Amino acid sequence: MRRIIILLVAIVATIAIGAIIIVARGIGARNEPSAIETTVARTLRHIAIPSSLRDRRNPEPATPEVIAMGRAHWADHCAICHANDGSGDTEIGRNLYPRTPDMRKADTQKLSDGELFAIIRDGVRLSGMPAWSGRARDNWMLVRFIRHLPDLKPEEIREMEGLNPKSPAELEQKRREDEFLKGH
């Protein structure tokens, strides 16, 4: 009985602290998450990934071909939020709450292959990370590419720029530039 009371007090205290933070900081997405929010979110994310998946190793080899396929997939699907270089420095990435993480840094790189795979496949609730439940092989190649991000070369980034999706306005601007250069 005493344990139940202690548990209930802890739950009420946690809710009260959360309410105080929300009232003090508001619900807007402009502020950085507090250290408490970040720690709780990362802990819950870790707990939510089954250990059988968390402990999986990447079945895709770290070959230049696999990394190139992961890079192309990243440029087409992930760079809009995460940037080609993994920094998260995009209009969307800077304005999400929590911010899109810098995938090159230790907080991401220290995650296991299985954790990265689960995050890609299943997404992350209450963040901007959607679930990408496509082919498992594509997701494992993305994990390989994420591991490569700290060593990404400028020529790889330039290649990726040609693979990034283009808006209708960007396509029209390119068409006009091409016409101008042809002398029409």
- Taking all Cα atoms into account, the compactness measure Rg is 21 Å
- Average pLDDT level: 90
Main sheet makeup: none
Overall geometric form: globular
The separation of the N and C termini measures 84 Å
Q: What portion of residues belong to β-strands?
A: under 5%
Order of helices and strands: HHHHHHHHHHH
- Helix-strand makeup class: mainly alpha
What secondary-structure arrangement, pairings included, does this model have?
Layout: H1 2-25, H2 35-48, H3 51-54, H4 64-77, H5 79-82, H6 91-95, H7 106-109, H8 113-122, H9 136-148, H10 154-161, H11 168-182
Helix pairs in contact: 4-9, 8-9
What does this structure look like?
The structure is a single chain. The protein is built from eleven helices and no strands. With 184 residues, it is mainly α. α4 crosses α9 and α8 packs across α9. The mean pLDDT is 90.
